[in-house]
Specification:
Layout: E1 19-23, E2 26-28, E3 35-43, E4 49-55, H1 62-78, E5 90-98, E6 103-110, E7 115-119, E8 123-124, E9 127-130, H2 131-135, E10 138-142
Parallel strand pairs: 1-3
Antiparallel strand pairs: 1-2, 3-6, 4-5, 4-7, 7-10, 8-9
């Protein structure tokens, strides 16, 4: 059954502690500080994007996090399990999926001196690989010590 939109959504997004911007095929991250943060996730790309956030254990720096996550993505692309000895991040947040121009808010607890990975697990509408593994749509950040 067809429907008619009678008014545009003119609501203003609430103020947040920062904005994670998705582009085709990257994320722009705000400065990340420890604590409970309400953030905006905005899709400035043309494709649909989602945001998965995972936290590595204390003592895993950004370089080690990137090395481990690259191996997870490679194993996933090959349809194989990842090596057993990799540090495994814990999923701590998710936002989206969002179409082009969409935005939403999410809340996440960031710990001091921790490395985080931000990844998009969507595929293009026309198909193909997931953006994280197939297009490199992954970003890393480490919060400062408390």
């Amino acid at each position: 059954m067809p429907f008619t939109v009678k008014a545009a959504n003119t609501a203003v997004m609430p103020a947040t502690d920062g904005t994670v911007v998705a582009r085709d095929w990257a994320f722009d991250l705000p400065a990340l500080l420890p604590g409970t943060k309400t953030m905006t996730f905005r899709n400035d790309g043309q494709q649909d994007h989602s945001l998965g956030i995972a936290e590595f254990a204390d003592g895993i720096d950004t370089a080690s996090a990137k090395t481990a996550f690259d191996q997870f993505l490679a194993a996933d692309a090959a349809g194989k399990p990842p090596p057993d000895n990799l540090p495994t991040p814990d999923d701590i947040g998710f936002a989206g999926p969002l179409s082009a121009g969409g935005q939403t808010t999410f809340t996440v607890e960031l710990k001091p001196n921790r490395s985080y990975v931000f990844a998009c697990y969507m595929a293009d509408r026309a198909g193909g690989p997931r953006h994280a593994g197939g297009k490199g749509m992954v970003a890393y950040a480490t919060t400062p010590a408390g």
